């Protein structure tokens, strides 16, 4: 079961996946976010994880301003 750490490690450079992730964070629906993770085989990301991500979304850097691959 892949979790959120696996998602970040594998998908850090995938702009399409990142765009969808940010879109779902902005939407603010933890169930929709969980369904997305499940659909891309990150079934280890729990609904509680999704709630935490959404509740803390203002702390997640804007992908346009920060590209983790540049570090």
What does this structure look like?
By secondary structure, this protein is mostly helical. It has one domain (4-58). It is built from four helices and no strands. The mean pLDDT is 87.
Give the CA-based shape: globular
Query: Beta-strand level of the residues, as a percent range?
Result: under 5%
Give me the number of helical elements. Answer: 4
**How are helices and strands ordered from N to C?**
HHHH
Q: Using DSSP, what is the number of strands?
A: 0
As for the number of domains, it is: 1
Structural class by secondary-structure content: mainly alpha
Residue stretches low in confidence (pLDDT < 50, at least 5 long) are none
Profile the largest sheet: none
The radius of gyration computed from the alpha-carbon positions, rounded to a whole number of angstroms, is: 11 Å
Average pLDDT? 87
Compute the separation of the termini in Å: 27 Å
* Approximate helicity band: 55-70%
What tags apply to this protein structure?
0% strand; mainly alpha; 4 helices; 71 residues; 56% helix
Can you describe this structure in just a few lines?
With 71 residues, this protein is mainly α.
SSE map:
Layout: H1 4-11, H2 15-27, H3 30-39, H4 47-55
Helix pairs in contact: 3-4
């Amino acid at each position: 079961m892949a979790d959120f750490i696996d998602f970040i490690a594998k998908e850090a450079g995938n702009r399409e996946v990142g765009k969808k992730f940010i879109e779902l964070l902005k939407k603010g629906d933890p169930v929709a976010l969980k369904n997305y993770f499940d659909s891309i085989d990150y079934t280890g990301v729990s609904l509680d994880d999704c709630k935490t991500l959404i509740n803390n979304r203002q702390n997640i850097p804007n992908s346009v301003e920060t590209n983790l691959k540049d570090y």
